[in-house]
Amino acid sequence: xxxxxxxxxxxxxxxxxxxxxxxxxxxxxxxxxxxxxxxxxxxxxxxxxxxxxxxxxxxxxxxxxxxxxxxxxxxxxxxxxxxxxxxxxxxxxxxxxxxxxxxxxxxxxxxxxxxxxxxxxxxxxxxxxxxxxxxxxxxxxxxxxxxxxxxxxxxxxxxxxxxxxxxxxxxxxxxxxxxxxxxxxxxxxxxxxxxxxxxxxxxxxxxxxxxxxxxxxxxxxxxxxxxxxxxxxxxxxxxxxxxxxxxxxxxxxxxxxxxxxxxxxxxxxxxxxxxxxxxxxxxxxxxxxxxxxxxxxxxxxxxxxxxxxxxxxxxxxxxxxxxxxxxxxxxxxxxxxxxxxxxxxxxxxxxxxxxxxxxxxxxxxxxxxxxxxxxx
Length: 376
What we know:
Layout: H1 7-18, E1 37-45, E2 48-54, E3 57-62, E4 67-71, E5 77-81, E6 89-92, E7 99-106, E8 113-121, E9 127-131, H2 132-139, E10 146-148, H3 154-163, E11 168-170, E12 177-183, E13 186-191, E14 196-200, E15 206-211, E16 215-218, H4 221-227, E17 237-240, E18 243-249, E19 255-260, E20 273-278, E21 285-292, E22 295-300, E23 306-310, E24 315-320, E25 323-329, E26 333-338, E27 344-348, E28 351-352, E29 355-356, E30 358-364
Antiparallel strand pairs: 1-30, 2-3, 3-4, 4-5, 6-7, 7-8, 8-9, 10-11, 12-13, 13-14, 14-15, 16-17, 18-19, 19-20, 20-21, 22-23, 23-24, 24-25, 26-27, 27-30, 28-29
């Protein structure tokens, strides 16, 4: 496959390796002589794939526990909804009347996604479910995109087939509603299976907002040798799928999206995760940064900063001149969010070997004057 077998499974597996690696070095943030310090505020989680901070409360979606909740006193999680399979995204509406979260049911034997969608709660305990899987099956927005290699030679086709990679195909039907953001009285869902952003109304109506473009990569002789492929593959351009993992609304009115590159992420093929800007009115897509290793989430700062959770690099990075700059080392980081004061909050995945819980941390430069403003 050109993407991880399925995103949730791939992220969990990758963290087992990440926690065995030494922490990535982090440079000091501009204007601060020392790197910031992560302070652990919760350590009883499993897979907190997303955070949302609204009205002084920290909301989370834990796909390992199947729980959507909020951070309570002493690091406890106060459940809002339980038995939520594959919970991964969470967002609160700007007026505070609704909370939305994404879920995905995955077949444990085939890793195929059988169900996926967005649940919208409130007001008056009203629940609405938007079925993104059904929408994808009916519309398949990236079905017009070509992936793999155009007009491959027989040697190239045989090489990719033997390696288990499809070599020439169009976008298929797959939905994995991963992240969600509140926007303009409705919701935007980053679907990591459909390679698209969906707009979802409060009544559950789904429409395509934008499709993320293919990610072409020319395979060098060094890459081909490291992958154990025959020399005929060298020089071939392979178009990988873009896999959107998070969406945030910028102060400029654009949507900001992180993507995984849809193929193996390792030093062999290089760091190829990206950040895009998407015009929510036209669906136009513009890449603003690339070079991330496992871009699973992003946060937008008060002054235009872009922070990216790099899971496979074990760090949070900032964007400068279209490239990542290390901000703080945080092995297993999978989510990052900013609060009203400009501090960052992040979440890390739990791990079984070596044993380590999933956590929520606050990342500051020693400022504690606002700690009481986070409501418990």
